[in-house]
Amino acid sequence: MTILVRRFRERLGRLSERTPFSFPAASVPPHFRRAAVLLPFWEDRGDICVALIRRAESLRVHPGEVAFAGGIVDPGESVTEAAVREAQEEIDLDPTCIEFLGRLDDAWSGFGHHISPVVAWLSAAPQLTPNPAEVAEVLAAPLSQILLPEARSVEELSVAGLSYTNVTLRWSGGSVDRLFSELLLEAIDWGMGEQPSLGPARLQSMLEKHEILSEAHR
Predict the structure, then answer these.
(1) Domain range for 27
(2) How many CB atoms lie within 10 A of CB 83?
(3) Could you tell me if 112 and 32 are in contact, meaning their C-beta atoms sit under 8 angstroms apart?
(4) Are residues 186 and 104 in contact, defined by beta-carbon separation less than 8 angstroms?
(5) At 163, is the secondary structure helix, strand, or coil?
């Protein structure tokens, strides 16, 4: 492991020393479902990679979207257990190679998911196989490409009356945007020595959108 990779891994590990921002249960709209996603990083020939998926076009929710492996938390599961189970089901990730580093702040999706992002480090470059029922493609994104200035583009969007900034991150094998680029950048910031706190702003945007949609249906 190179010095730069080791430092990134050590800084990312500081996630375990803090309590992630969690949405208060009373603030989460009742129709939202609890979900978890896994952000698995590993070293590959001096670079750092992270695994994403391109969701199958046949899926009802987010078809074709580039995301992190994950899904609904089953009754009795922790968010970490759910993230691992989903990653194993979707991309055949071996649980024995996973070292958990902590969680990012809670997030949410417009499809009604209350999401806990789980960050992990893999002991070796994984052999990943997509489950065709859920995943069209597994993508290994190298941070050396994602962090290039030309890899990032920013646009202002408006959805359901709310304005937000969308960041798209590109690399030679694909791109990721919206919520999942935000989560990836949040994790990278931790690995670079920053300590972002995005949970409160995410909670506020969730409450604002829910209020707008509630008023529209009155």
Answers:
(1) 3-216
(2) 32
(3) yes
(4) yes
(5) strand
